[in-house]
Amino acid sequence: MSGRAVRAATRRVLRRLALALAVVAGATQPLLAQTPYSNAELIDGFMLTVFGAEVGNTARDLEAASVVKKFEGPVHYSIVSMANEDYSGSVRAFLRDLSRAVDGLTLSEAAAPRMADMVIFMVDRNDYVPTIRSEVWPGVDTGFLEENACSAVIAARPSGIERAFVFLVADEGFVPLSHCMVEEISQSLGPANDSDDLPDSIFNDSSEVNVFGVFDWYILNMLYDPRVRPGMRIDEVAAVLPDVIADARTRLPSIMATRPAIAAHASFTPP
Q1: How far apart are CA 35 and CA 58, in angstroms?
Q2: Is 55 helix (H, G, I), strand (E, B) or coil?
Q3: Half-sphere exposure of 74 (CA within 13 A, CB side)
Q4: Closest CA to 224 of 253, 247, 202
């Protein structure tokens, strides 16, 4: 069987398992704690995405990549739509659904961009690079951001992420826009690294995943558990993750039973 066929068969099995969880969501049996992923898989996913970064090799960059990065407290966002077609409603719907699905994460709209912790710029392709160059704060090498189809950049201290900018292109179709929206907004919350070793994650440029799925739900729920704090290093996080995962497992069935959707494109689906 080819590698593609194996991956497809695996996804079918995982899909059946995830849907079975949704069916029994109203029950109170221990079966509810069962999910498609082992603790080892979830911990690997967390370590690969939360530690590391796609940009920079300086000592400062490497130090930042070695600690947990997350927002502390509510995250206030602002959507700045400068594109000919306005998809702000879809972005708001995803942010609302994300806030409901991730325990410990509260996303709410700020009154103005200057009051926001996260600013999401929606532009046409011709304005993508100029917007990055004009908006990103001084000291950031924007070359990596500019060469990607969409991008996000965060400013973080050991006490947590201070601000995040997300740059989305709105004139190349809704499906690529929604993929970028899910990946870049999710990464701007802390899991900033991509890895080819995560077949069921949107944090993998080689995967076929294009929605916010169960695996990435785990990563964000693990990250925003209060036991996982900004500035923690790998060994500190490893000590608490098994208990964090156990609690997340008990919440998954109720989330799957009411998983939301945006427009015609699912924003939370099984793998």
Answers
A1: 39
A2: coil
A3: 10
A4: 247
Determine the residue type at 66: S
**In which order are the strands placed within the sheet that holds 151-157?**
107-109, 75-81, 118-123, 160-169, 151-157
Q: DSSP string spanning 185-254?
A: HHHHTS-----TT-TT-SS-TTSS--S-BHHHHHHHHHHTSTTS-TT--HHHHHHHHHHHHHHHHHHHHH
pLDDT digits (tens, 9 = 90+) for 30-71: 333 446 789 999 999 999 999 966 555 555 655 667 899 999
Strand, coil or helix: what is 37? coil
Give the alpha-carbon dihedral of 240, 102, 173, 12, to 10 degrees: 70
User: Tokens in use for 143?
Assistant: 């070359």
Its sign, for the CA torsion 209, 165, 79, 128, is negative
**Burial of 233 by CB count in 10 Å (0-12 exposed, 13-18 middle, 19+ buried)?**
exposed
Contact 102, 75 (CB under 8 A): no
β 160-169/151-157 pair status: antiparallel
**pLDDT (mean) for 12-16:** 38
- Reduced to 3 states (helix: H, G, I; strand: E, B; else coil), residue 36 is coil
